[in-house]
Specification:
The protein has 186 residues and is an alpha/beta fold. It has a single domain, classed as Vaccinia Virus protein VP39 (Rossmann fold, 3-Layer(aba) Sandwich), CATH 3.40.50. It is 38% helix and 26% strand. It has 8 helices and 7 strands, in the order αααβαβαβαβαβαββ. The chain has a 7-stranded mixed beta sheet with strand order 3-2-1-4-5-7-6, with helices on both faces. Helix 3 crosses helix 4. It is globular, with a radius of gyration of 15 Å. The N terminus is likely disordered.
Length: 186
């Protein structure tokens, strides 16, 4: 898994947004608020090499659904192959910005959690606002948008779009990461 990540990070750092895969500590910190004992609908944006996808797929119930969105063809092919036997994991080679199209197509009106690895620092503010508004429209009231980043550059935009934004840090990651836990869309 690390080999495919390194190759893609070196070839397209501007779209991958990281120099190394997420550590097991970052994965655990990202997912610790999720109650995996319930049937859930979870979106994942930017699964990369699938390290977070793998952790989620191991914890969700059989009736839960995990829908991932990956634009990078190498990452998509890797994750699609790795989870092809999982009946409740759906890997799409589509932009996270268009997640609503698929949800409407399959009749999903609400999402419990959105787990994002998107490199928000590389997006224009208006694109982030559009994405956050769309996420808010689909998130259940008790749901959350979970995002990790390597800087605080999206903090203000997240605060403008969610009523509650909690920050935590994972130091044992390359580089250390900030985790945003956002709820109560405005």
């Amino acid at each position: 898994m690390a080999k495919i990540f390194t190759r893609n990070a070196l070839n397209s750092i501007r779209s991958v947004g990281s120099i190394a895969p997420s550590s097991k500590y970052l994965v655990a910190d990202m997912l610790k608020i999720i109650d995996f004992n319930k049937d859930l609908n979870i979106l994942e944006f930017g699964p990369g090499n699938g390290v977070i996808t793998k952790a989620i797929s191991k914890k969700i119930t059989k009736k839960s659904k995990l829908i991932t969105y990956e634009l990078n063809v190498d990452f998509y092919n890797h994750v699609e192959s790795a989870f092809s036997e999982e009946e409740n994991v759906f890997v799409l080679n589509k932009s996270a910005f268009d997640f609503d199209e698929y949800l409407r197509k399959v009749g999903i009106s609400h999402i419990d959690y959105i787990v994002s690895s998107l490199p928000l620092a590389l997006f224009k503010k208006e694109d982030k606002v559009k994405l956050f508004k769309k996420c808010g429209a689909f998130l259940k009231q008790e749901g959350a948008f979970l995002q990790y980043q390597y800087s605080l550059n999206s903090y203000k935009t997240l605060k403008e779009n969610f009523n509650k934004v909690n920050l935590s840090f994972t130091l044992i990651n390359l580089p250390p990461a900030i985790i945003y836990q956002c709820s109560g869309p405005k």
